[in-house]
Amino acid sequence: MNLRLIISISILSFIFSLFLFSKSNGAIVSDECEVCHGLYPGMMEEAPLGEPQKFKLQNALCIDCHSNSNRDAIKILGGVRVPVVNNTVKPDKSLAGGNFYYVAKDFGDRKGHNVDGIASLDAKFKGVPPGYDKDFDPSVSGYNVEKPLTCAGSNGCHGNRNIENPFDAIRGSHHADDSPIDGSTTAKSYRYLKNTNKVKGVLGLEDADWGQNSSSKKHNEYSLSIDQYCASCHSNFYNKEKIGKMGPWFRHPTGIVLPKTGEYMNYNPAVSPPADKKEVRIYNPDAPVARPIIPESASETVKLGTDIVTCLSCHVAHGSPNESMLRWDYDAIFSGEAGGGCLICHTGKSE
Amino acid sequence: MPHREKRMTNSKELRAESNPTHPPLSKGRSKEGSKSNEFYVICVFLFVLCSLFIASDVDAKMKGRCKDCHSMHADTPYPVLTKGGCVGCHGQFPDGTQNIITIGKTRIPQVLHHMQNGDLAGGNFYYVADGYNPDYSKGHNVLGISQPESIPTMTSPPGFIGNVVIPGGTGPVDWPEQQQLTCSGTWGCHGDRTIEDPYKSLYNAHHANNLVIDGSTVGRSYRFLYGIKGKEHQDWEYQATIDNHNGYKGDITHSTMDTISYLCGECHARFHPHPNLGGAGGARFGLWVGHPADISFSSVHGGFAGSEYQEYAIYSLESPVAYSNPTGGERVVDVDSIVMCLSCHRPHATLYRDSLRWDYSQISTDDITRTGCLICHTRKGGH
């Protein structure tokens, strides 16, 4: 009798834990629909029978949910932890993607993606993604330079880029099964970065805190697919025909292996690897690398000759305090001196 | 070419002056005070030593913001992510009036500019640069600055010999007719000339530690001329003086490949007596048939003593000489001073034909001013 009770309790616990696990992996399960959907006027109203729901300002829903009026970069809505990408005051600890605060304010529109509803059209590129080449954009319609950048949809990053409407492009993903991250659906793509149905979504390991307080041991894990994703709109900065083929490079290469030679042998010189791991270096979240195979958990080691330089090694996706959305202040990096930034990889250029 | 700061030096005298003798300490405190004083002196001494070492080491390298020279995703990209390649940095404003451009902490010598009296030691490509009334006879026709030389005899470097020995290997077997001169690489002067790609041949040189110019790497070679030794004037000889100038390396034994004239001879081989190059065919029966290079005044016909060369006694920036172990501070020209290619020419371009330092057509035996050729050939001028 006792044995049956124990087995029953164990089974129930297991099922319950599975439920909890899936919840923690991102699929939003909450009874409090209004905390999110009530932010958008008319969102909760039923559509007339037989007519599709028509929403206005769909992009605003993304922004409303993922913004915060205080400094916290993770907020709670209806018991759900929501990553904040746009603090209206200076964020305390930005997430891995950065924060649109820096482009929304008067810091200059070079500090982030000028997403509609947050920042106006950028003065330099006039809405044209730098390095854009339609031939390398997997979406059918391509980027419409006549329209602004959006969070999702054909002119955005998240969701299905074959769907113009930002809301429709990502619709349902927040409530869908999002595990494992295999790129099969938007929900099962890293940070909902899917591109189109015909293209495998981005793969990666999502830090439970979206990279907040990241360290060598706790961080997102990226794959080469993140570069391919950026290249959808910035292909000239990724395409080997445009950046050169192994020295001399014409543009900073991305999607290439961090060499196991020369100055790169000393990647992240500030932290030496353990004595028994001379062949690796220690991961630096200020200049992260991608992995050819996504590990089960965040790895603190960087394998030279294996791990990969990515767009995100230098840039963040949303916005940063620095020009060109860099992870560091390019103006403050000097060759011949000690420092981080570029010199985390280009160690031979420092002292 | 990088900015190389002069090494910090402090004479013992200066250090002594900065540490005046202290009066004797009072009894009872003297022992402790003496120890404390010794400790203080040792600390200061160590600090000064460390500062000297660190400052020297740091100053030896290229210092400056990455962005001043490089562009990561340029609309019009150039090799090694540079802003305009070699000329983009070293010829930023062809009609500008700066011969050295300072951006942040970086001082960049300009080899193409329009500053009056501002030509650096290497000369100025302005005189041969397309778009600026060029006269191709006045300098090297470098890709990116000038069109290829149109004179048929100039389709290859004058005096060219294929397959000569150069630092790291051998030079090109032939000089293809369509091959234009480049700043660096196999078809250029700077960098490792065994590497064809101009930028690969200079890889990392600007960021290398160049505290010692020993020719062991491109970065540690005089002006990135691989294998060549010398002393680099910190302002590329702008406002140089007769005791603070470039120090050119010469070798009258013709047994090394580290002289500035050997570098010239890598392309203009027939003009250099080194056996790797043109050999000793420049002299017949004791008479030169071509102006010699890498010879000392002691080698002249009839000997130095009593010769006209003896009257060239003080270093001339107009017609410099090389030394076996140059320091850049030589003021005296003597029997061991060495005639080199750069005694008469500048490597980039000059106001005069054949990239000469003076107008050859105006040098006359009637001249009493002793300029040009007459700086060495002192008795050929009028008296």
Textual characterization of the structure:
The complex is a heterodimer of chains A (351) and B (383). Chain A is α/β, with parallel strands linked by helices and 351 residues long. Chain A is 17% helix and 10% strand. Chain B is mostly loops and 383 residues long. Chain B has a domain at 65-150. Chain B is built from 5 helices and 13 strands. Chain B has helices at 12-17, 30-59, 66-69, 85-90, 260-265; strands at residues 64-65, 100-103, 106-109, 165-166, 169-170, 182-184, 188-190, 230-231, 247-248, 283-284, 287-288, 295-296, 338-339. Classes of the chains: A alpha/beta (351), B little secondary structure (383). The interface between A and B is medium-sized, with 28 and 25 residues. Strand 14 (334-335) of chain A pairs antiparallel with strand 1 of chain B, so a sheet runs across the interface.
Q: How many angstroms separate the termini of chain A?
A: 73 Å
Largest sheet of chain A: 3 strands, mixed
- Measured between the Cα atoms of the first and last residue of chain B, the distance is 43 Å
What pattern of helices and strands is seen along the backbone of chain B?
HHEHHEEEEEEEEHEEEE
Strand content of chain A: 5-15%
Helix proportion range of chain B: 10-25%
**Biggest sheet layout of chain B:** 2 strands, antiparallel
Q: Which outline of chain A best applies?
A: globular
Spans of chain A of 5+ residues with little confidence (pLDDT < 50)? 12-25
Helical segment tally of chain B? 5
Q: Which two chains touch over the largest interface?
A: A-B, 28 and 25 residues
Tell the overall outline of chain B: globular
